[in-house]
Amino acid sequence: MTPHVILRTHNLSKKYKDRWAVRNLSLEVHRGDIFGFLGPNGAGKSTTIRMILSLIRPTEGRVELFGYDLKSHRSKALSSVGGIVEKPDFYSYLSAVRNLDLIGSLNGGVEKKRILEVLDVVGLSGRGGDKVKTFSHGMKQRLGIAQALLSDPELVVLDEPTSGLDPQGMKEVRQLILHLAKEQKKTVFLSSHLLNEIELVANRMAIINKGELVVQGEVKALLDEGGRYVVVEGEPKAKIKAVLKKNKKLLEGFTERDGSFDVKMDFDDVPMLNNALVKAGVRVTALVPRRSLEDFFLSITENQGKV
Ligand SMILES: Nc1ncnc2c1ncn2[C@@H]1O[C@H](COP(=O)(O)OP(=O)(O)OP(=O)(O)O)[C@@H](O)[C@H]1O
Ligand SMILES: [Mg+2]
Q1: What pLDDT, on the 0 to 100 scale, is given for residue 301?
Q2: d(CA 69, CA 265)
Q3: Pairing mode, strands 187-192 and 34-38
Q4: Is residue 27 a contact partner of residue 216, using CB atoms and an 8 Å limit?
Q5: How many whole angstroms separate alpha carbon 69 and alpha carbon 93?
Q6: Which helix (H) or strand (E) holds 52?
Q7: What is the sign, positive or negative, of the torsion defined by CA atoms of 255, 260, 265, 269?
Q8: Which of 23, 143, 193, 278 lies 20 to 30 Å from 286, alpha-carbon distance?
Q9: Whose CA is nearest to atom 7 of ligand 1?
């Protein structure tokens, strides 16, 4: 295994009764990555994370962490991994410090200094002595991240850390994740069901659906793959068509669909296209930049629950 791959899953699979929750999943996380693990509800994200953190056993396949096989070298493999799955669970009548102390003691003990450090990293340094029941949802999420950081792991695995947060709370957690990667040199593996969330922080990503890998790679490349296009709507259509045909150099092509036009082009040229349309006497009603990956992910999400 090349040293910079710090997490690798080989055909990882988990079957519950006669149903595969995760199937043949092969992931590769590189040192320094913020790796986004994207999938709609029920896709198998938490199940995968449970297998990576060794909380459940795979039915088939295996996990390698820092070059160690999780099954045969469990403690070495997990020695520099910290994580949380689903909602972090705390004793609400105990303080944040006491909760972290208890969790630390399950893993051989943790110094008070370290507890204060992680609370500081997640922005809770002033609230360590307060009971967790007085914490907002966002503060509990951040306390969950503090828990994952306790042992100062190199790989931090977070399952939907922004779930249920308001936009401000989401932003704070995003900034925290970026801080962990940039300042603290952590590799972060985080799951989400929102493409936008992943796009804002991750450099690499994988999409899973119904337990199977759909695509994996660089976020930028994946978002550009299949292209970006702009949906153009307005009247009269004949004039729109004439403008699109005349600007062949800038516009890479177009297709007409349901009375609107999908134009393959650089988003930077949208104002130019708007000008050209207006000049030609078109009443423009919409110019909407779209990306194929976004459409694709949306179509997966929209089809959830339908058989
Ligand atoms: N303990 C279990 N027993 C039986 N089936 C399970 C169990 N845990 C998960 N599943 C099933 O496995 C599939 C994947 O679930 P999982 O929780 O991994 O999805 P997820 O991507 O984390 O979804 P969400 O976004 O809702 O958290 C689902 O169909 C779920 O019902
Ligand atoms: Mg989940």
Answers
A1: 74
A2: 46
A3: parallel
A4: yes
A5: 39
A6: helix 45-52
A7: positive
A8: 193
A9: 16
Q: What is the DSSP letter of 185?
A: -
Question: What pLDDT sits at residue 226?
Answer: 67
In the 3-class helix/strand/coil scheme, how is 75-101 assigned residue by residue? HHHHCCEEEECCCCCCCCCCEHHHHHH
Q: Check if 301 has its Cβ closer than 6 Å to any atom of ligand 1.
A: no
Distances (CA, A) of 31 to 41, 180, 232: 28, 13, 42
Query: How far is it, in rounded angstroms, from Cα 43 to Cα 41?
Result: 6
Q: Do residues 243 and 209 make contact, with C-beta atoms less than 8 angstroms apart?
A: no
DSSP-assigned letter for residue 54 = T
| Tokens (6 digits) for 173 | 């957690």
pTM: 0.85
The residue contributing the CA closest to ligand 1 atom 8 is 47
> Tokens 């337990």 identify what position?
211
Q: How far apart are the first and last CA of the chain?
A: 40
CB atoms within 10 A of CB 176: 21
* Ligand located closest to 42 CA: 1
Atom of ligand 1 nearest to the CA of 193: 25
* φ/ψ (deg, to 5) at 237: -65, -35
**Which secondary-structure segment (H or E) carries 105?**
helix 96-106
- Establish whether residue 43 lines the binding site of ligand 1, counting it when its CB lies within 6 angstroms of any ligand atom: yes
Q: Are strands 60-65 and 68-69 parallel, antiparallel or unpaired?
A: antiparallel
Instruction: Give the closest residue to 247 by CA, choosing from 228, 266, 273, 278.
Output: 273
Q: How far apart are CA 274 and CA 106, in angstroms?
A: 62
Two tokens, residue 168: 């401000």
Ligand number nearest to the C-alpha of 48: 1
pLDDT at 246 over 70: yes
Q: Which domains occur in the chain, in start order?
A: 5-217 (3.40.50.300), 226-298 (3.30.70.980)
Residue 17 zone, left/alpha/beta (φ > 0; ψ -120 to 50; rest): left
